[in-house]
């Protein structure tokens, strides 16, 4: 049985990846500091390490104990705004954390690193949808840190012969996503519709995004493990949807009709974001199977069942770690 270490495995996306791996008979260990994740996100029992990827000593202890064949590196600082306000912290987690993964993967014989990157590496583009061959020009420290980690992985292949697969996610949504962090607009809207509260839409709402359901993202990670060699791929629906349209669909699902509040657009907010997934479909033998309607319905139903714990903060009490 092949072993996979998932950093950030108790988080929104990571927990879905863990479940997918367990279902496909991989032996899985989770490495997570629970800064945004929750141990309640993963129902399967297995080995878990509670620390930060930027702590090389703690990470080495986990690698030495588990001896993974593969690492799926999901742990990250994910907020664009936080990366702007604290550029050093963003670099410490996203760059140093990634180089620690590379260094220890070489030391303990890891075959391949799967890395969660982002559409943020592209910046503004006049070409839509954006292919993976498009030049990168990130507009935030977050985008720069993701791009930098990508370059380290490419060097690691040349220097240490560690295979890599870089997955550039578009806007991921689905069950377990919290209201904090980037890409949380759907979970925020759902929360407001359930509470019959007004939602805020920044700008005119005509800006578009490429929304991808989290289970499709988990499937892409599974296919990346099976991929023969190294490469970079966009993981997206390749479908643009306006923020107004998303809000309208959620209102329809929730059978509510509370009008949103429109406020000025945020600085640096992209008007359009759309990634081309043709290479992923052709080379990874992967394609998204969830329509936006199906994904939104699943997500809404998930939060409806939470009742008293709608959209939890994700933080666990200290006693959980003991």
Quick synopsis:
It contains ten helices and 13 strands. It is of the alpha/beta class and 322 residues long.
Q: Quick one: CATH class?
A: Alpha Beta
Principal-axis shape equals globular
| Individual helix count | 10
For the termini, the CA-CA separation is 29 Å
Helix content: 25-40%
How are the strands of the biggest sheet laid out side by side? 3-2-1-4-5-6-11
Structural class based on helices, strands and sheet pairing: alpha/beta
**Count of individual domains:** 1
What is the architecture at the second tier of CATH?
Answer: 3-Layer(aba) Sandwich
Q: Oligomer, anyone?
A: single chain
Mean pLDDT: 91
Unreliable sequence segments: 310-322
Largest sheet: 7 strands, parallel
Cα radius of gyration in angstroms? 19 Å
**If you consult CATH, what is the topology?**
Rossmann fold
Helix and strand pattern: EHEEHEHHEHEEHEEEHEEHEHH
* SS strand fraction: 15-25%
Find the count of extended strands (DSSP E, 2+ residues).
13
Q: What's the CATH H-level homologous superfamily?
A: NAD(P)-binding Rossmann-like Domain
Could you explain how this protein is built, in words?
The structure is a single chain. The chain is an alpha/beta fold. The protein has one domain: 3-Layer(aba) Sandwich (Rossmann fold). Helices cover 39% and strands 16% of the residues. It has a seven-stranded parallel β-sheet with strand order 3-2-1-4-5-6-11, with helices on both faces. Strands 7-10 form a two-stranded parallel sheet. It has a two-stranded parallel sheet with strand order 8-13. Helix 1 (12-23) crosses helix 7 and helix 6 runs parallel beside helix 8 (243-254). The longest helix is centred in the first third of the chain and has 21 residues, at 87-107.
